[in-house]
Amino acid sequence: MTQTMADAVISELVKQGKITDPQSAKGRLMYEAAHLFKNKGYERTTVRELAKAVGIQSGSLFHHFKSKEDILLGVMEETIVVNIGRMNKALIQQPDPKHQLLALIRCELDSVHLDTGEAMSVLVSEWRSLNEENQKYILKLRDDYEALWFRVIREGIQNGTIQHDEFILRRLLAGAISWSATWFRPDGNLSIDELAKQTLMLAIR
Questions:
Q1: Domain boundaries, the chain
Q2: Among 13, 123, 170, 177, which is disulfide-ready with 19 (CB 3.0 to 4.6 Å)?
Q3: Could you tell me the mean pLDDT of each successive run of 10 residues in the chain, 205 residues long?
Q4: Distance of alpha carbon 23 from alpha carbon 103, whole angstroms
Q5: CB 61 within 8 A of CB 51
Q6: Which fold has domain 8-203?
Q7: CB–CB of 89/9 below 8 Å?
Q8: What is the reported pLDDT for 6?
């Protein structure tokens, strides 16, 4: 998915009221929170540090969120909603399971390496910091995200494109894509498009 298309998805989700405008004060706060939560950890990040990151007083944070946990929940919720939106947009443009799987791989690589990368990392590492009710909500959203993958993988199995167990294949792809954050650089010699194609070769006949 091109950056223009990715931005269009965000614009549409903002218009629908499903996510916060990234350019708004609340949107900038969540962006900075994702950065701090990833690099310092949720528990070690203070409300004062969050406020300082966006240039406001600590008490002003609570015009947007009830608590620090609500900020964490917002970061996680919106990054899943954004990436589900991008995946759905990418899928409708592809003619068959092979190209749909490639589109999902590309979207997930984008989610790790581009604008939602830090929020995705926080989602993986900090979801247990949420209370029980919020954990259930985020896990339900995560299941919605995974359901897109399993639908495409099953269709690939049915038409003979894929010969792997669906659960094992998804876990292997998720692990490989997530781990690429430790070694892949989008501005290096290998493009995200090429990495997506190489990754697809692990999944199909």
A1: 8-203
A2: 13
A3: 81 95 93 96 95 87 92 97 96 94 97 92 95 97 97 96 95 95 92 96 88
A4: 27
A5: yes
A6: Tetracycline Repressor; domain 2 (1.10.357)
A7: yes
A8: 82
Token digits of residue 67: 């608590």
Count CA within 13 A, CB hemisphere, residue 106.
22
pLDDT at 57: 83
Cα–Cα dist 97/114, whole Å: 25
The tokens for 52 are 């300082």
pLDDT value, residue 100: 97
Pair 30, 75: CB distance under 8 Å: yes
* Residues in Cβ contact with 71 at an 8 Å cutoff, skipping those fewer than 6 apart: 29, 30, 33, 50, 61, 65
Residue 89 contacts by C-beta under 8 Å, 6 or more apart in sequence?
1, 5, 8, 9
Contact 25, 54 (CB under 8 A): yes
Which residue in this structure is represented by tokens 């990833």?
38
Judged by DSSP in three states, 116 sits in coil
Supply φ then ψ for residue 15, to 5 degrees.
-60, -35
Q: Is the pTM of this model over 0.85?
A: yes
**CA–CA distance, 2 with 110 (Å, rounded to integer):** 10
Contact 186, 196 (CB under 8 A): no
Query: What six digits make up the tokens of 122?
Result: 């926080």
